[in-house]
Amino acid sequence: MSRSVLVTGGNRGIGLAIARSLAEAGDNVAITCRSGEPPEGLLGVRCDITDPEQVEQAYKEIEEKQGPVQVLVANAGITRDQLLLRMSEEEFTSVLDTNLTGTFRVVKRAARGMLRARRGRIVLISSVVGLLGQAGQANYAASKAGLVGFARSLARELGSRSITCNVVAPGFVDTDMTRALSEEQRAAIVGQVPLGRYGRTEEIAAAVRFLASEEAAYITGAVIPVDGGLGMGH
């Protein structure tokens, strides 16, 4: 039976690969995006997750068109890289407001319907940077590390209602963002990865699809690294 799925930031990159994978599995998939046209076959909803009113309106639209959200993939995020002493308060707080507080907003709204239904799947997209840290990304790393504590708290809080909450932590993935790096930068990154290559968006999507499935019904509070071995030990 088709489920109602929401993937935030699902109009490109990892989010789009996740949305397409779940749609191929037969789910009805909505995505949030702030600009551009939604990809074919997906319900596009305009939403800036830093705005509580836009989040509420997005959920109402999704509920009208495909029913209450049964699977939520919180993927939307931003970077504002800067070394600590040069980082402004706005650069720090804007990243946390999108990546961490924005996730809180969309998860809280989805949980309302999941609690009523006594079932649900929540998957948060973190990053290997949230586990390892990275110079120039104190804001991003803090936001992504925060998702782990958030998810594990929710796993304990919502588990009795058959709602699972897990985290996928991608490593360096071949996306438009990483393709913008120089060949020298790309080579330096790959040199740190035991498997010796970038990940593919489809590989992240496969992990999310599993965690959203019935086969993963007894997995909650887990952090699944999809990073080629980069974050081992963390």
TrEMBL record:
Residues that coordinate or bind NADP(+): 9-12, 75, 140-144
Protein EC: 1.1.1.100
InterPro entries (alphabetical): 3oxo_ACP_reduc, KR_dom, NAD(P)-bd_dom_sf, Sc_DH/Rdtase_CS, SDR_fam
Active site: 140 (proton acceptor)
Pathway terms, separated by semicolons: Lipid metabolism; fatty acid biosynthesis
MF annotations from Gene Ontology: 3-oxoacyl-[acyl-carrier-protein] reductase (NADPH) activity; NAD binding
GO BP term, pick one: fatty acid elongation
Enzyme kind, highest EC tier: oxidoreductase
SUPFAM superfamilies referenced in this protein's UniProt entry, alphabetically: NAD(P)-binding Rossmann-fold domains (SSF51735)
Sequence similarity: Belongs to the short-chain dehydrogenases/reductases (SDR) family.
Quaternary structure (record): Homotetramer.
Identification of the protein by name: 3-oxoacyl-[acyl-carrier-protein] reductase
Organism from which the protein derives: Streptomyces aidingensis
Organism phylogeny: Bacteria, Bacillati, Actinomycetota, Actinomycetes, Kitasatosporales
